[in-house]
Amino acid sequence: MTEVAGKDGSVYADTSKVTGINAWALDQEANMLETTEFEDAWRTFVAGLKRWSGTFSGLYQSGPAPQDNPTAGDLDLGTSVSLNLKFESGHFLYGVAYVSRIGSRTEVDGVETVDYSFQGNATLAYA
User: Fold this and answer.
1) Would you say 11 and 97 are in contact if contact means Cβ atoms under 8 Å apart?
2) What is the spatial distance between Cα 113 and Cα 111, in angstroms, rounded to a whole number?
3) Model's pTM, two decimal places?
4) For the segment 42-55, what is each residue's pLDDT rounded down to a tens digit?
């Protein structure tokens, strides 16, 4: 198996590529429901509901963005977007998600950055 650089990854909100983004991460998990009985020597579980969430971050860009190419600063807290997370290979993870957190950072010896957290709403798919 060959390693792949992440340099061509990207984030799309609805159908537009979000500019300024240089990192994204996604977590998928399933609730594990305990089914252990008194006489069991080991705990037992069954898989419950699944969920997904994650983050993306990048450079803060000021000023108006073209309508078809929003910056990360154009996304609002609590809004629902059709999110597409692109891998270098051209494949996507996609689904509808809510923007659940927005963070900003400024340092004296660095550039201004913005961080977003999102919570998936229903199915996550791969294409």
Assistant:
1) no
2) 6
3) 0.82
4) 999 999 999 999 99
